[in-house]
Amino acid sequence: MVAKWPRHSPNYEDLLNDREHFRDHILVAVDFECVDHVGNALSEGDKVSEVGLAWFDPRAENPTWNLETTYTGKPPEYYVGKAIHVRHCVIDTWKTFTPKTCPASFHKDGHRSQKSHTSAPYNAYFHQTDIFAKDVAITKMKTVFSDLIKSKRTSDEIAEGTHRSLLFLFWDARLENKVFAEWGIWNHIDNIRDLNGNTIQIDILDLQRWGPIKKKWSHYSQAPARLAFPACGLHFPDDYNDQPIVFHNASNDAWAEIMVFIRLIRLPNEEAYKDWMSHSGGLDLVDLSWTTGTIYEANVKLGKKMENEYLKALN
C-alpha cells in the first residue's frame, strides 16, 4: 500500500493539479461516531457506535472531473449526490444509546461542564440503518474495499491484473486512522496484491487540512464542519420534515464529505476559487429533491424502537 497525504492545495493551480491526479480515483469516505459515556475504559475501536461509508466511482457515472460535461435539467450536484453509494450501521453493543438515552452525566441539566450528545445514530438520510456486531461491520467494510478496487476495470486492466486507485476522504482523520489500525483495515488493504505483486495505490486526504478548506478557515486551529458543510451548500431544509440535514450521523457525514470534495474540486475557474475564499463566499444549496424521506422516517422509527428497548431494560 502506498499512501500519500496530498498537499494543502492552497492555490487554484494546485486545485487543478489535484483534479487531474484524482480524476480516476474511486472516492471513499468513512466516518465513525463513538459513545461518549464510557470515558477511557475502552479502546477507540470498542467505543465506535456507528460506521458510515460512502463511495463514488467516476467511471460508473458521468465524468465528474470533466468540467465540459453537460447535464440536463438539474445542476451537476443533483446527479452526483444521487450517485454516491452509502452504507450505515449501528454497532449492536451500542444500539440503544441515543441522544435521549445516553447516561453520560455531562448531558444532564445543571452539570457544570454540560455538553450535548452529538451523535445521531438513527437519523440517516441515504441508507436504511443496519445493526451489526462489530466483527460483522469490520468484515463488510473490508469486503467493500476489496470489491471496489476490482470494479469497472478496463479490459487491459483486467488482463494485466491491475487494481483501481482509491482516495480515502476523512474529516479530521485522527479517529478513523486509529480505528482502521485497530480493526485491521489498513493491514487488510496493505496485504492485497495484484497479479504483479503490487500493492493498492491509495491516497488519503484529511479534508480539514486540504487547502480550499484549511485556508478559508485559517483562523481556526481546525476547520469546523458546522461552517464548512453549510458553505458547500449542504445545510438545507428537506421536503419531508422541514429540518436541516442531520450531521453527526456517520453516513450523512460520509456522504457530505464526498460532496464537499467534489464541489470544491469542480470550481470552474480562478475567479470562482477567489470568491469561495472570500469571507462571505459559499456555494449554492444542493438539490436533494431526489430523496423521498422514506429512509429517514424508517430510521427514526427504528431509533424509537431502540430507545424503548433501553427503557424496558431499566424496569
Low-confidence stretches: 110-114, 237-241
Shape: globular
Fraction of residues in β-strands: 5-15%
Spatial arrangement of strands, main beta sheet:
1-7-6-2-3-4-5
What's the architecture, going by CATH?
Answer: 2-Layer Sandwich
From the 3D structure, determine the CATH topology: Nucleotidyltransferase, domain 5
Number of strands: 7
- Any idea how many domains? 1
Using the coordinates above, name the CATH class. Alpha Beta
Give the helices and strands, then pairings.
Layout lengths: L1 E3 L7 H11 L3 E9 L9 H4 E9 L19 H8 L1 E7 L38 E3 L1 H15 L6 H6 L5 E5 L3 H10 L1 H6 L10 E6 L4 H4 L10 H7 L18 H16 L4 H8 L16 H21 L1
Summarize, please.
With 315 residues, this protein is of the alpha/beta class. Helices cover 37% and strands 13% of the residues. It has a seven-stranded mixed beta sheet with strand order 1-7-6-2-3-4-5.
